[in-house]
Amino acid sequence: MNRSKYIIGLAVIVIIVAIGISIKSVDSQNDMVERGKYIVDAVAACGFCHTPRTGTEYNEDMYLAGHVANSPYSRYDMSLMQRGIFLASPATLTAFSGPFGSSFATNLTPDKETGLGEWTEDMFIKALRTGHHQGNVDNRKIFPPMPWKHYAQMNDSDLKAIWAYLRTIKPVKNEVSPVLNPMGRPY
């Protein structure tokens, strides 16, 4: 009889500890998402380039969805260098043209076809560490003005928090143009 009470008491303790751990991990996940939101919106200012705008107002329906598919962008003219201008951008501030060609702010939403939906956390972190699309050095480089070298210095915890947050935002279907070389053709 004492043995069965002992086993029942032990089982109750194990269940209480498991529930406590489960609740703590949910809280930790929520904390991580909140930290990611803080980094994305306040510190890294990802929306500054990845959310299209009209004037000073962000298009909240396109939050972090990148350059709007097929929308116009400024083409760089090498004569701009003589005036000290190294980057041209349309009013949306989601496309950037310079001597390197033209790059377009990527869709960071979890859309599976046009965003980061098929990416893994490891791919995301490696992309920011290596400066290569999907973190694969055989893939194209991440082009200016994306400051990946600065983000590469973030600790793993911060990058994981950013990733956790990006997984929670509304997916937006938006096929962003590929990076174009100075002749206007895809790299």
How would you explain this protein's 3D organization?
It is a single chain. This protein is mainly alpha-helical and 187 residues long. The chain has a domain at 32-72 and 104-166. The protein is built from five helices and four strands; from the N terminus they run ααββββααα. The chain has helices spanning 2-43, 47-50, 121-130, 148-151, 156-166; strands at residues 53-54, 57-58, 95-98, 101-104. It has a two-stranded antiparallel ribbon. Helix 1 (2-43) crosses helix 5. It starts with a helix and ends in a 21-residue tail after the last helix.
What is the secondary structure topology, with strand pairs?
Blueprint: H1 2-43, H2 47-50, E1 53-54, E2 57-58, E3 95-98, E4 101-104, H3 121-130, H4 148-151, H5 156-166
Antiparallel strand pairs: 1-2, 3-4
Quick synopsis:
The protein is mostly helical and 187 residues long. It has 5 helices and 4 strands; from the N terminus they run ααββββααα. α1 crosses α5 (156-166).
Radius of gyration (CA) equals: 22 Å
Average pLDDT confidence is 87
State the share of residues found in helices, binned by percent: 25-40%
Secondary structural class: mainly alpha
Order of helices and strands: HHEEEEHHH
Low-confidence segments: 22-26
How much of the residues is beta strand, in percent? 5-15%
End-to-end separation: 76 Å
Strand order in space, largest sheet = 1-2
- Approximate shape: elongated
The largest sheet is: 2 strands, antiparallel
How many E strands?
A: 4
Number of helices: 5
